[in-house]
């Protein structure tokens, strides 16, 4: 399992060191890129629905099992729990926290 944090649009803002063992990318290689760049094309539609949902509901959203592209262009299967964090001062979503588990 590894943790990542994303902007509302899905760009990586943080990814913990454990991810390197799983996906092969160093954190600095992935920061600032969109998580959509790593999702398998056949999984994007369902993940877009999960992304829309997490932006609208206060509880966590669990994704389907999906394929995530690794540095060597192979894919691993992940399942993620996404939760949006709202800024209490503005009530706007500051970021999305993701707990990502290898399936």
Write the layout of secondary structure elements.
Elements: E1 2-6, E2 12-15, H1 18-23, H2 27-30, H3 44-54, E3 61-62, E4 66-69, E5 75-86, E6 93-102
Antiparallel strand pairs: 1-2, 1-6, 3-5, 4-5, 5-6
> Low-confidence spans: pLDDT under 50, at least 5 residues?
none
Helix content: 10-25%
Question: Helix/strand-derived class?
Answer: alpha+beta
Q: Let me know the number of strands.
A: 6
Give the N-terminus to C-terminus distance in angstroms: 10 Å
Mean pLDDT: 96
- SS summary, helix count: 3
Taken as a percent bin, the fraction of beta residues is: 35-45%
What does the model show?
By secondary structure, the chain is of the alpha+beta class. Helix content is 20%, strand content 36%. It contains 3 helices and 6 strands. Strands 1, 2, 3, 4, 5 and 6 form a 6-stranded antiparallel beta sheet that branches. A hairpin with a 5-residue loop joins β1 and β2. The longest helix has 11 residues. It is globular. The N and C termini lie close together (10 Å).
What does this entry show, briefly?
This protein has 103 residues and is α+β, with helices and mostly antiparallel strands.
Any descriptors?
103 residues, alpha+beta, 20% helix, globular
